[in-house]
């Protein structure tokens, strides 16, 4: 009998090194005790509370159940698209526990290969559109306490909390910013429209300048998130055609705010202000900048807007940061805008998230970029904006970043 020979096992392709990344836009899914345990007692009977709906599963009830937020929709990261919908029953045990448990969240960060996340609300996004400003104030104060004490405070270098303010007045907004700063929160998510617009005007009105100055002096970026402006809601009757058409318009609220601040001269009056346009993608921005410059050059006379000392595109380059997740176009237009204002995000655990495949998405989307531009967009821009302390990640002589400190 001949001697048996064993073929060598096939070579396993080398695993590509993980890309250092910070998510500039991620979310909590507020737990049942977030609001009710901390809210002003006058509003406790209306506080958002957790429940199980027979059709939706895990929900948050608003205004004694008149409105229901299905958690299976907003915490659907990683699920097959065909299983995501408002009436796809999702039990609490099926949700990402890192939506409210910071220990579980750090494990989810490690799984997705991110160093840290800037944390925004989920229920709080929709509360931005609530008509009762006093109710919003009570809810946002309760949320800020929960976020600081029970979630972000557990790992402040990896869970970067963004507070909320109802803006019943400019002065109250300034007080809210100071309170958030004292709690250890790193920035503020603004409602798309101020509750006191009738008294103080829109955000370009000079009466808002004390708020912008306070944010700049406190080093707190001011963020405007999609779906917080009332006029950018999916399925809103203002949109024509099928509901899918309204989904394509969800960045409109952020675009309107940017235009309001730019054309209203806010950045001339408060040049230290930093604004973040959150989850509205970024591939469209070079055209917006070009069109805005065109409007000033050719139509500024008859449109009659305030005189600006610079072109709109220059204000955007200096003051406006943009977050995006699955936007391959944004990585292709870095030569048409300042790449230092682009910040990648995974949007975990929302349904538009790249979790748990962020590393694969980033490897594909950034393959054509230089190390410097790639690292700026994936982590450095966010770290600099929020003053984060991170491990040193220098580029090696071979051009491959040293991944020291990146979760394996």
Automatic annotation (TrEMBL):
GO cellular component, as recorded: cytoplasm
Pfam families: Amidohydro_2 (PF04909)
A GO MF label: hydrolase activity
Domain of life: Bacteria
InterPro entries with a match to the protein in the record: ACMSD, Amidohydro-rel, Metal_Hydrolase
Keywords, comma-separated and alphabetical: Lyase
Domain Amidohydrolase-related: 133-388
Biological process terms in GO annotation: secondary metabolic process
Stated name of the protein: Amidohydrolase
Highest classification ranks of the organism: Bacteria, Bacillati, Actinomycetota, Actinomycetes, Kitasatosporales
């Amino acid at each position: 009998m001949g001697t048996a020979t064993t073929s060598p096992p096939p070579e396993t392709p080398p695993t590509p090194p993980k890309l250092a990344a910070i998510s500039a836009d991620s979310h909590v899914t507020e737990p049942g005790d977030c609001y009710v345990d901390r809210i002003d007692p006058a509003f406790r009977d209306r506080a958002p509370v957790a429940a199980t709906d027979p059709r939706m599963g895990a929900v948050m009830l608003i205004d004694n159940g008149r409105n229901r937020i299905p958690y299976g929709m907003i915490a659907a990261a990683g699920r097959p698209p065909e299983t995501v919908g408002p009436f796809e029953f999702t039990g609490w045990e099926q949700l990402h526990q890192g939506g409210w448990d910071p220990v579980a969240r750090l494990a989810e960060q490690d799984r997705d290969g991110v160093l840290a996340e800037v944390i925004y609300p989920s229920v709080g996004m929709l509360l931005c559109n609530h008509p009762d400003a006093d109710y919003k104030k009570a809810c946002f104060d309760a949320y800020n306490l929960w976020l600081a004490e029970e979630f972000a405070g557990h790992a402040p270098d990896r869970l970067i909390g963004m507070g909320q303010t109802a803006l019943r007045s400019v002065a109250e907004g300034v007080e809210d910013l100071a309170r958030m700063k004292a709690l250890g929160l790193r920035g503020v998510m603004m409602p798309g429209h101020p509750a006191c617009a009738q008294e103080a005007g829109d955000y370009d009105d000079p009466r808002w300048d004390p708020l912008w100055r306070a944010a700049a002096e406190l080093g707190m970026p001011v963020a405007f998130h999609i779906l917080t402006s009332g006029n950018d809601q999916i399925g809103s009757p203002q949109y024509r055609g099928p509901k899918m058409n309204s989904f394509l318009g969800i960045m409109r609220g952020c675009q309107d705010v940017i235009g309001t601040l730019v054309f209203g001269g806010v950045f001339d009056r408060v040049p230290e202000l930093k604004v973040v346009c959150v989850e509205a993608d970024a591939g469209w921005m070079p055209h917006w900048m070009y069109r805005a410059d065109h409007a000033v050059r050719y139509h500024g006379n008859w449109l009659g807007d305030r005189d600006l000392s610079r072109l709109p595109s220059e204000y955007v380059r200096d003051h406006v940061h943009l977050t995006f997740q699955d936007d391959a176009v944004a990585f292709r237009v870095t030569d048409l805008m300042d790449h230092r204002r682009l910040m990648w995000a995974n949007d975990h655990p929302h349904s538009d998230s790249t979790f748990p495949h962020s590393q694969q998405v980033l490897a594909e989307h950034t393959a054509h970029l230089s190390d410097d531009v790639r690292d700026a967009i994936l982590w450095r821009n966010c770290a600099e904006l929020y003053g984060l302390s991170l491990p040193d990640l220098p580029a090696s002589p071979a051009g491959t970043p040293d991944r020291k400190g990146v979760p394996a």
